[in-house]
Amino acid sequence: MTIRITVSLPDEIVHKAQQAVAAGQAASVSAYVADAISEKQHGVPLGELLAAWDAELGRPSDEVYAWAEAELDRTDAEWAAQRTAKA
User: Fold this and answer.
1) Do 19 and 50 share a domain, yes or no?
2) For residues 58 and 54, what is the distance between their CA atoms, to the nearest angstrom?
3) Taxonomically, which superkingdom (predicted)?
4) Per-residue pLDDT tens for 13-64?
């Protein structure tokens, strides 16, 4: 069964839905929105996912955390340089 409802959405979301329909990625805007809501309902919050990984695999080592921090710092520096170059 399908129930018709009326919702208000930001322009950019409607535009993306229309683009998906035009590209054949969704049958209709309604189908696009229904898929998005369905995915949201089935998603796992990031905190829960990370806690489950820690429980299953153990906490990452200090070396892994240090590597991740270094990669995030490097990526932040790259993004800052790109923003500066565009300005």
Assistant:
1) no
2) 5
3) Bacteria
4) 999 999 999 999 999 999 999 999 998 888 888 899 999 999 999 999 999 9
* Residues 51 and 82 reside in one and the same domain: yes
| The residue to which tokens 């070396």 are assigned | 63
Q: Are 57 and 68 a contacting pair, CB within 8 Å?
A: no
Q: How many domains does the structure of the chain reveal?
A: 2
Identify whether 4 is part of a domain. Answer: no
- DSSP designation for 60: P
Three-state SS at 1: coil
Does 18 lie in the same domain as 30? Answer: yes
Q: Kindly tell me the number of DSSP H helices and DSSP E strands found in the chain.
A: 4, 0
Query: What's the angle, vertex CA 83, arms to CA 79 and CA 84, rounded to 5?
Result: 115
Question: Which range marks the domain in which residue 74 is found?
Answer: 46-86
- Could you tell me if 27 and 54 lie in one domain? no
Q: Which two tokens stand for residue 61?
A: 């080592």
Residue 41's pLDDT is 86
